[in-house]
Amino acid sequence: MIAVMALFCLCATAQEADVPDIKALHPAMQAMGTVTEFHRMAMGEPEVAAETFCDNRCFRRWKQRMEPLKKAQLVDFFVGAMEITGSYDKTSAVSALYNPFWDTILLLELNLPEEGGKGTIVKFAMLAGETFRGEKPSKHPFKTVVAKYSLFTELANVFSKTVAHFDKTFPQKAAPSLGEFALSRLEDEMPLVGLRSTLRISLMRGMLKNKEDVKIMKSMQIVLQHGKQDSLNKIFAGHNVDTHIRTLMDMPPDVREQFVLYSYYMTPEYTVFAYVPLFMPRLLAVVKVPKQQPAPASLEIYDLNDSTAILAVADKMKGGKK
Where is the domain boundary, 181, 204, 227? Predict the structure, then answer.
């Protein structure tokens, strides 16, 4: 069950009077509220978030296990991560933060106090997606998702597989425990996760060396955040673009204003910019700018929660079976 962050009142800026009595909330909601608070804090200060939400033993392990990753890498993980809630009972729960751009999952086991208040992280495991899903190692395991076909197809594929496996592994009524995933031997791949994040960040830094791409990135970000219908129609063209523009226009202004660049790469024909809203990275806006100007850019907007439909669309575009 994906946690839609916009629905929560449990955020750092909410006043105490606005927060519902957590005693009356379902344990799953209590777990989601805890993970949301941890997630938001970790987007800016990962170690502070871990120290705040982990118990003492778990925090010591966090500092040891996360040592291969620098602060900038962890921030990048959390900005692109989505929340998942699995098994729970009255006093404990299993949740996760999954970043499909890294294809990496952070599993969390929580203690939930019966008297209410935020939960505590007591165990965690950070694993590459294919390790968690029990798949054979990739031929290029250090690579992040950058688009064998199209970016949204690749992300939808790993996202849907990971969520399905998480739901199967940690069904709601099962005992809420990480089990074998808490074992140290499964985290020997942390250097691999670090390589993946290093590649992602290096791709982003590559853009900074190209002043024209930086200019395009900034202008497209402003368009996504504030562009009106008429300007969007002039800038974007291509297959089904009217539907994507309507999707953007239908978003609440406070969601649109959060769009930031999260991925950048080049193909022989296009420069691709991928944007996600802070606090709701399941929404993906992909802008493809043709290298042969002045051809118009294209826009695709998808909700990764609807990955099944995304894959059906992609299959149809490739001429496959629905």
Answer: 204
The answer to whether 33 touches 25, Cβ cutoff 8 Å, is yes
What total of structural domains would you count in the chain? 2
Chain-centre distance of CA 51, in angstroms? 22
Residue 322 domain-assigned? no
Mean pLDDT (whole number) for 2-14? 35
Spacing of C-alpha 146 from chain mean position: 15
Structural domain containing residue 88: 5-204
Contact 178, 94 (CB under 8 A): yes
142 shares its domain with 177: yes
Do residue 239 and residue 164 come from a single domain? no
Query: Could you tell me which of 254, 264, 251, 152 has the C-alpha nearest to residue 217?
Result: 264
Structure tokens at 251: 């978003």
Residue at which a domain ends, from 186, 204, 222: 204
The residue to which tokens 């974007």 are assigned: 236
Residues in the chain: 322
Same domain? 55 vs 168: yes
What does the pLDDT look like over 130-179, one tens digit per residue? 889 998 877 666 666 655 567 788 888 899 999 999 999 999 889 999 98
For residue 244 the two structure tokens come to: 């994507």
Look up residue 296 and give its DSSP letter.
Answer: P
Element (H, E) at 229: helix 229-235
C-alpha 266/C-alpha 206 separation (Å) is: 10
What distance in Å separates the CA atoms of residue 75 and residue 93, rounded to the nearest whole number? 24
Specify the pLDDT at position 287.
94
